[in-house]
């Protein structure tokens, strides 16, 4: 069995005075694409923030590469390979595309390899290459999402966390973003994908978890979940 890279045990997180995550357990193994689905307000983004060290947790534990992350900073975890593309993309709008990618590699010192990785990102996202010297703030939402993903890849993640990558995008751009997620996964990157678009997320994933009101209410093989009547009724509009 593949190594468990990320293990969440009885995780409890409060956010703005509300306990948003009430004791969840799940894991992500090396080479997997795992989808965490649920409606808005279920606690998915809060969970992601706790995993990446940007939000402290009240109880339980998060282990990355076999070690607890409790009390560790996000910058430290990025250096070990735990990298998130946040909801809303968060690109540096007054920097060019190339500068944004370089920022993604700020923890690295291997200049020749960084240049090679920028070329790899441009191969994965040809649209970014065409606009390499353009300011990120002048790009469309979908292009900014590609840039945010490319920037995260520059840190050479062991686990890439994607928080709602399709949110607010046109249907054509949603198709493109999911194509890119699959491409990244096919390149061997382990992915934890948080998505409201349950159908697309489960189609891509190996395994899935359903989160409702701060709890994991269902888990299993993603393709089995995709045909589960309860999942279809709650998340696929059937």
How would you sum up this structure, described in words?
It is a single chain. The protein has 238 residues and is an alpha/beta fold. The protein has a single domain (4-235), classed as Rossmann fold (3-Layer(aba) Sandwich), CATH 3.40.50.300. Helices cover 38% and strands 27% of the residues. It contains 10 helices and 10 strands. It has helices at 44-51, 74-80, 97-104, 111-124, 126-130, 141-153, 171-186, 198-204, 222-226, 229-235; strands spanning 4-15, 18-29, 33-37, 59-64, 67-68, 82-85, 159-163, 190-195, 207-212, 215-221. The strands form 2 sheets. A 6-stranded mixed β-sheet has the order 6-7-8-3-9-10, with helices on both faces. It has a 4-stranded antiparallel β-sheet with strand order 2-1-4-5, covered by helices on one side. Strand 1 and strand 2 form a beta hairpin. Helix 3 packs parallel to helix 6. The longest helix is centred in the last third of the chain and has 16 residues, at 171-186. The mean pLDDT is 92.
Main sheet overview? 6 strands, mixed
What's the pLDDT, averaged over the residues? 92
- Arrangement of strands in the largest sheet: 6-7-8-3-9-10
CATH class: Alpha Beta
Number of helices: 10
Cα-atom Rg, whole angstroms?
17 Å
How much helix is in the residues?
25-40%
Tally of strands: 10
Helix and strand composition category: alpha/beta
Rough shape?
globular
Please provide a brief summary of the model.
With 238 residues, the protein is an alpha/beta fold. The protein contains ten helices and ten strands.
List keywords for this structure.
alpha/beta, Rossmann fold, 238 residues, globular
């Amino acid at each position: 069995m593949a190594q468990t890279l990320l293990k969440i045990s009885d995780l409890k997180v409060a956010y703005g005075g509300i306990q948003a995550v009430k004791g969840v357990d799940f894991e992500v193994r090396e080479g997997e694409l795992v989808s965490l689905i649920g409606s808005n307000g279920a606690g998915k983004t809060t969970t992601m923030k706790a995993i990446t060290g940007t939000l402290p947790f009240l109880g339980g534990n998060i282990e990355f590469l076999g070690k607890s992350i409790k009390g560790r900073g996000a910058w430290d975890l990025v250096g070990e390979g735990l990298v998130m593309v946040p909801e809303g993309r968060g690109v540096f709008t007054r920097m060019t595309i190339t500068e944004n990618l370089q920022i993604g590699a700020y923890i690295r010192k291997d200049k020749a390899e960084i240049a090679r990785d920028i070329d790899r990102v441009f191969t994965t996202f040809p649209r970014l290459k065409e606009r390499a010297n353009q300011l990120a703030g002048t790009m469309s939402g979908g292009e900014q999402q590609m840039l945010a993903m490319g920037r995260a890849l520059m840190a050479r993640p062991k686990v890439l966390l994607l928080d709602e990558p399709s949110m607010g995008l046109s249907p054509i751009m949603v198709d493109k973003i999911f194509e890119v997620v699959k491409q990244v996964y096919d390149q061997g990157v382990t992915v934890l994908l948080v998505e409201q678009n349950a159908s697309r997320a489960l189609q891509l994933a190996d395994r899935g978890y359903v989160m409702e009101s701060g709890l994991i209410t269902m888990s299993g093989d993603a393709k089995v979940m995709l045909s589960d009547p309860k999942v279809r009724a709650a998340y696929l509009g059937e």
